[in-house]
Task: inverse folding
């Protein structure tokens, strides 16, 4: 019975096994999609049912608590939503579809293990499971050659940061003689003024900075966003970011408000926001633009974490949810506009308001939520993060972040302009959304707006979840 | 859940009515343009009726905050859904109701993407109503941005002269303002130590130290001042006004610039009175420069809409001058001027819109002798121009006189300069009226028909409002007094 608390993990392992079996059968895209959608839907139910479970396994290396379960819930929702986008998986050869779902499931499984692991080596193994699934997913796209470039870039940058991370973990172990987060968080605050422990913690964080695409670990993001299949990018842009935010919060909370670490993170946050927003200004491809916007958002989300107070961690968790919903809706539009699986340039959004008014509205809501304009969930996320930073007295940081928000509005408004104002050179056909797709889009729009004006319960949930942090 | 409700929630009803209007419009098929217009008219009519009711039902003998609706929203952060009406915001709620209703009527002949236009317009007005009635900083900021973002599509899609440039410039300027306001709001909530966004709780004396007030006031003055068209942050406003379609210009100059001025009043002056006193001389200088600048630049314009736009800069300077006097009369006049200028400028843009729709030009040299072609349409513009000059009998006269008297007392030199500018403004308004409406009749436009009764209706309502409050200024001044006197009395001195 003890193993029942691993319900979600066991379930996703089973999902992976199902697709392993399917990959050995004759290719059938419809069958794979229906199976994936069905299994992902049940996966959400399983994780939500497991939200209240608590327990500890393997001598405390693996802990199931509200923090991990909330993030597992988010991850299974991310998995479900991305599978929803796969009804026309045209960017990937049909024969590869089972492998695509298989890797997606193992990647989700890896991230679920990650948010529960409380020991450095467990963490590393779980992270590698996630990473290797992604190394397989990125170059899975058919045609061209850019997917290979993206895949190799991602792989090389990924293993390099893995090495840094291992080095960091070794230093942490050297400084504290333990790999357990629980013991680390007791010993670290006194040791953080020694270079070994400080560098160790910082390098350990690098592995997750890489996943979050925080400057200077962002170099892979533009190529991967553009080069990978749209659905894969959607997954990379949502689920992996959520996990990275959770893990950075977990590791940073070990330092118990160390100021030099906070200053380091402030510098990274400012550079990341500014760099991401400035480079995004000149982008022509929508997915590439979203990549640079993700680099900027990595900076915003870090503001909540570096505040190192309960409001800050709760704000970061809320921000992760907001970012998941907001980014997903943008990729939903990308996938529907590029029904043949190609890339979408911003000018190709022209005339969207006539081709599909609902998608145009969804795009506007999504982009404004990314930009942080009320009453969207993106604004509320930023507001909470800024409140946390202000409680620590980081006024200048908040002001710089707000200036960044205004800079970013320029390129977000270009997307809205394309969708509502520009007329396409040739008349393009209407985009006909199926009934489930219409409902999904409408629900996401409602979630973004209602979450924005009524954040109460979500924020309380986030507050309850981060109490599990040391 | 803590909840305070004084009777039927009329204020929320206004907001809900706008939301309903928006939703109903979204679900009408886009081909049914006439239906969209009628639905918009009905919902804006209900909003107007409700705002008139609230204006009249406010108990002036009692004063203070009435129609209070308070609901705890996010407990850990101290956010409340908190609406209330007092002598400061009631005139502006009424103004919004009138301008929106007449704006819908003014756009009755709109062709193309009608549904989207009215949907965006309702979103904008929803934000403006919410901003005026909210007493919680968090919601105040939400409504602030809700009222700003529809400006971009409204101008960029349906606008005219250099519309994309104007829309982008406006959007980035006003959102840069909101980027200063948000840190200010969060700073106040955290620095006060109360961890609440409730304006009433934060405005208690002694909650914020003088240093905090001086710092925060500057943020609010700059942040909201950009939207209020304070010189030298006004540059977006003429470009945006000129590019916008008629009813958007009306809402924009008539209501949205007041959102900025009201933000300075409600957030800056209410919460940071010491900062207000400290920065008042700077405000006065900037406001006077704005008044003079608007007049002088207005003198040389050839585009009618630019003339009106610069007159707005000048008239908003008068609001700023009134606020900067730190006296009861000054505040009184400033709030009255917000209302009067809103009505007047809506009338100017509305009457201009009709002329532009028919002649397809708004360049003064191309027009001329319009009063012989369309005497009624010209009449509306001339009436509004007279009001703009501050002729007695119109609401703006009382507002400007009140401001100037208090300004002369507090800043004699700046006050005299402002009055000098007012004389000049008569000159440029008369110049425009003479060149556009009198003189040789332009044969090109001889065949054009005059404004019909139904199309003239919105202008009639605006003229009637101006004259009503011009002849009976106490209808408004007494109401504003109920808020100004206790507020000034409560200031620490």
Result:
């Amino acid at each position: 019975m003890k193993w029942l608390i691993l319900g979600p993990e066991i379930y996703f392992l089973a999902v992976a096994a199902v697709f392993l079996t399917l990959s050995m059968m004759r290719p059938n895209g419809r069958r794979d999609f229906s199976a994936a959608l069905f299994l992902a839907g049940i996966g959400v139910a399983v994780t939500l049912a497991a939200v209240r479970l608590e327990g500890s396994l393997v001598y405390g290396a693996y802990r199931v608590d509200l923090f991990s379960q909330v993030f597992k819930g988010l991850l299974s929702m991310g998995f479900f939503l991305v599978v929803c986008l796969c009804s026309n998986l045209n960017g990937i050869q049909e024969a590869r579809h089972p492998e695509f779902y298989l890797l997606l499931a193992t990647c989700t499984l890896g991230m679920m293990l990650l948010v529960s692991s409380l020991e450095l080596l467990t963490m590393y193994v779980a992270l590698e499971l996630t990473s290797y699934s992604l190394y397989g997913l990125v170059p899975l796209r058919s045609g061209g050659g850019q997917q290979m470039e993206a895949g190799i870039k991602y792989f090389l940058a990924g293993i390099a940061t893995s090495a840094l991370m291992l080095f960091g973990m070794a230093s942490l172990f050297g400084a504290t003689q333990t790999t357990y987060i629980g013991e680390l968080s007791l010993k670290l605050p006194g040791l953080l003024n020694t270079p070994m422990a400080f560098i160790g913690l910082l390098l350990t964080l690098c592995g997750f900075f890489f996943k979050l695409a925080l400057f200077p670990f962002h170099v892979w993001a533009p190529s991967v966003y553009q080069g990978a299949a749209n659905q894969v990018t959607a997954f990379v842009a949502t689920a992996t970011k959520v996990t990275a935010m959770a893990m950075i919060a977990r590791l940073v909370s070990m330092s118990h408000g160390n100021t030099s670490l906070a200053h380091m993170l402030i510098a990274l946050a400012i550079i990341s926001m500014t760099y991401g927003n400035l480079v995004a200004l000149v982008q022509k491809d929508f997915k590439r633009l979203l990549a640079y916007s993700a680099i900027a958002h990595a900076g915003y989300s870090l503001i909540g974490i570096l505040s190192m107070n309960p409001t800050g961690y709760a704000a970061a968790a809320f921000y992760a949810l907001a970012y998941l919903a907001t980014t997903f809706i943008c990729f939903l539009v990308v996938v529907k506009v590029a029904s043949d699986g190609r890339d979408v340039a911003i000018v190709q959004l022209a005339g969207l308001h006539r081709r599909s008014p609902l998608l145009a509205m969804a795009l506007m809501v999504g982009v404004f939520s990314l930009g942080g304009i009320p009453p969207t969930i993106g604004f509320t996320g930023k507001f909470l993060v800024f409140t946390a930073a202000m409680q620590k007295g980081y006024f200048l940081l908040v002001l710089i972040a707000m200036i960044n928000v205004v800079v970013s509005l320029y390129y977000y408004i270009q997307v809205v302009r394309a969708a509502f104002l520009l007329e396409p050179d040739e008349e393009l056909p209407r985009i006909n959304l199926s009934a489930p797709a219409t409902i999904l889009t409408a629900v996401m729009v409602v979630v973004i707006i209602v979450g924005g004006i009524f954040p109460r319960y979500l924020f309380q949930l986030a507050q309850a979840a981060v109490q599990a942090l040391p | 859940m803590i909840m305070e409700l004084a009777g039927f929630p009329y204020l929320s009803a206004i907001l809900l009515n706008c939301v309903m209007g928006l939703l109903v419009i979204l679900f009408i098929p886009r081909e049914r343009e006439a239906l969209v217009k009628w639905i918009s008219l009905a919902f804006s009519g209900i909003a107007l009726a409700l705002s008139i009711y609230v204006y009249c039902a406010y108990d002036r003998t009692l004063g203070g905050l009435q129609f209070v609706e308070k609901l705890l929203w996010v407990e850990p952060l101290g956010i409340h859904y908190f609406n209330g009406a007092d002598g400061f915001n009631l005139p502006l709620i009424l103004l919004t109701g009138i301008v929106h209703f007449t704006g819908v009527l003014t756009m009755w002949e709109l062709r193309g993407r009608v549904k989207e236009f009215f949907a965006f317009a309702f979103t904008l007005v929803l934000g403006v109503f919410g901003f005026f009635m909210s007493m919680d900083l968090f919601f105040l900021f939400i409504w602030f941005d809700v009222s700003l973002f529809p400006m971009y599509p409204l101008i960029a899609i349906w606008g005219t002269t250099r519309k994309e440039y104007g829309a982008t410039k406006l959007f980035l300027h006003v959102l840069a303002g909101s980027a200063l306001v948000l840190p200010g709001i969060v700073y106040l909530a955290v620095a006060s130590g109360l961890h609440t966004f409730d304006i009433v709780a934060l405005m208690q004396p002694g909650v914020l130290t003088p240093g905090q007030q001086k710092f925060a006031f500057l943020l609010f003055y700059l942040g909201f001042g950009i939207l209020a068209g304070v010189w030298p942050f006004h540059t977006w406003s003429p470009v945006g006004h000129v590019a916008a379609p008629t009813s958007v210009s009306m809402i924009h100059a008539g209501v949205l610039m007041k959102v900025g001025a009201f933000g300075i009043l409600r957030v800056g002056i209410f919460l940071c009175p010491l900062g207000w006193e400290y920065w008042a001389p700077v405000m006065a200088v900037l406001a006077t420069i704005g008044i003079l600048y608007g007049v002088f630049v207005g003198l040389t314009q050839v585009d009618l809409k630019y003339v009106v736009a610069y007159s707005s800069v000048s008239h908003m300077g008068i609001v700023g001058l009134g606020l900067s006097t730190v006296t009861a009369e000054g505040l009184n006049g400033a709030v009255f001027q917000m209302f009067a200028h809103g009505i007047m400028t809506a009338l100017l843009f509305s009457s201009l819109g009709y002329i532009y729709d028919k002649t397809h030009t708004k360049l003064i040299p191309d027009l001329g002798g319009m009063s012989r072609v369309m005497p009624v349409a010209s009449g509306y513009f001339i009436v509004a121009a007279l009001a703009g000059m501050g002729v007695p009998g119109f609401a703006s006269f009382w507002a400007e006189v009140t401001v100037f008297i208090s300004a002369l007392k507090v800043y004699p030199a700046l006050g005299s300069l402002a009055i000098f500018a007012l004389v000049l403004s008569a000159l440029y308004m008369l110049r425009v009226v003479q060149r556009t409406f009198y003189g040789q009749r332009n044969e090109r436009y001889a065949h054009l028909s005059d404004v019909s009764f139904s199309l003239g209706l919105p202008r009639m309502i605006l003229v009637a409002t101006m004259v009503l409050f011009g002849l009976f200024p106490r209808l408004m001044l007494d109401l504003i007094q109920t808020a100004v006197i206790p507020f000034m009395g409560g200031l620490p001195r």
Strands of chain B lie at 3-5, 66-74, 79-85. The first strand of chain B starts at residue 3 and ends at 5. The mean pLDDT of chain B is 86.
